[in-house]
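TASK: fixed-backbone design
INPUT:
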C-alpha cells in the first residue's frame, strides 16, 4: 500500500520505516525555498534572471500556494506566472528542474540549473510535458485523488 505523507508541516528531513514490504511512502506537498537577502544581487542569481527569466524568492516576496504529488520545493518563478520546482533533497546543481505553468501543468524544464543556464531562454521551447508531478491548488484538491496522511496520524496507525 502507498502512504501519501504530507511534508508541508515538517521542520526537517523525516523518513518512515515500514515493517511490511508492500508498504511504500510517497512524500507530498510543497515548500517554497527562500534565498538569503545577501544573494539578491549575486552575479549567479542575476544570470538566472537575465538569461532564463528565473527569479528566486526572497523574504517579503509573494509566495505561491499549491500542492504537489510527489513533494516539490518551489525554487523560483518567471515573468509569465510560472514556477520552477525541484524534488526534495535536490538542488539546482543536481536537478531535475521542473516548470509549473499558471494552468498547473508540469514540464521538465532542464536536467539541472546549469543546463537551464546553457539553454538560456530556449528552455521554454524545449521543455517537455511530464506526468511525474501532479499539481493541485491545495491539499483538499489533492485529497480527492489520494488519502494523505499527517505524520502524527500515521504514527498512530501502529504496525505498518
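OUTPUT:
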Amino acid at each position: 500500500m502507498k502512504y501519501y505523507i504530507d511534508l508541508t508541516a515538517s521542520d526537517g528531513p523525516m523518513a518512515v520505516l515500514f515493517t511490511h514490504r508492500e508498504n511504500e511512502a510517497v512524500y507530498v506537498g510543497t515548500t517554497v525555498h527562500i534565498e538569503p537577502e545577501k544573494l539578491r544581487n549575486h552575479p549567479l542569481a542575476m544570470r538566472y534572471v537575465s538569461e532564463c527569466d528565473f527569479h528566486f524568492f526572497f523574504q517579503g516576496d509573494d509566495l505561491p500556494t499549491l500542492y504537489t504529488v510527489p513533494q516539490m520545493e518551489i525554487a523560483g518563478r518567471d515573468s509569465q506566472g510560472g514556477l520552477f520546482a525541484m524534488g526534495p533533497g535536490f538542488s539546482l546543481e543536481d536537478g531535475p528542474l521542473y516548470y509549473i505553468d499558471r494552468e498547473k501543468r508540469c514540464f521538465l524544464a532542464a536536467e539541472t540549473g546549469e543546463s537551464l543556464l546553457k539553454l538560456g531562454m530556449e528552455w521554454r521551447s524545449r521543455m517537455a510535458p511530464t506526468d511525474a508531478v501532479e499539481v493541485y491548488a491545495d491539499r483538499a484538491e489533492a485529497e480527492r485523488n489520494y488519502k494523505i496522511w499527517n505524520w502524527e496520524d500515521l504514527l498512530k496507525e501502529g504496525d505498518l
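COMMENT: Residues 2-156 form one domain.
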